[in-house]
Amino acid sequence: MPAKPKITPARLGVKILRSVPTRLYPFERYFRGFDRLPPVRALFGSRTGRVLRSLRVEFFSARYGYMSTSDVDGHLIISRQYLETGELSTVYLDVIHELCHVRQFRAKRPLFYPKLSYVDAPSEIEAYLVTIAEGRRIGLTDAELIEYLRIEWISEAEHRRLVRRMGIAWPRRHRRRQRSRAIER
């Protein structure tokens, strides 16, 4: 059996430049006033201004997606669609959450823990603790914080575990419903 011919750009008659630059923008061009926020100052201390001035953000265009922090160089990666259409309090809290990851990255701590569930990863627990504290500071109710923690890529059991870890009490009526289901089993 003859060897299968190797697929090369020359054979295909094309040229694909596969090393492309990522377009990064200054964080403070799009996110102003974060240097004055108590949780951000608590994250970065006296270096807050310097960190935010040096921080870069990459916007991507897709129907889906939210925000993340690059584990390569620590810049923020944000869905343009989410930024434009997301609820203000959620976008705001997500920026706080990602700034916590920026601090973790700069401290050379891992952002991702492939062997752990998302809600069990130390980086996520720390970031959500900061975020939930800020949610409370700006006046969100426990019910709103519970909803904020409802993330589409985690299960209902993981959501309940994350809510408990954040020290949020389930609304009274929800607790009763949970209890009655447990009795039925």
TL;DR of this structure?
This protein has 185 residues and is of the alpha+beta class. It has one domain (33-184).
Could you explain how this protein is built, in words?
This protein is of the alpha+beta class. It has one domain (33-184). It contains ten helices and four strands. Strands 1-2-4-3 form a four-stranded mixed β-sheet. A hairpin with a 6-residue loop joins strand 3 and strand 4 (76-79). It is globular and about 70 Å long.
The largest sheet has its strands arranged as 1-2-4-3
Protein structure class: alpha+beta
Task: Provide a count of the helices.
Answer: 10
Helix content: 40-55%
Could you give the order of the helices and strands? HEHHHEEEHHHHHH
Question: So what's the oligomer here?
Answer: single chain
Biggest beta sheet attributes: 4 strands, mixed
- What general form does the structure show? globular
Q: What distinguishing features does this structure have?
A:
about 180 residues, four-stranded mixed beta sheet, disordered C terminus, alpha+beta
How are the SSEs ordered, and which strands pair?
Elements: H1 9-12, E1 25-26, H2 27-30, H3 38-44, H4 48-54, E2 56-60, E3 67-69, E4 76-79, H5 80-85, H6 88-106, H7 122-137, H8 142-148, H9 156-165, H10 172-184
Parallel strand pairs: 2-4
Antiparallel strand pairs: 1-2, 3-4
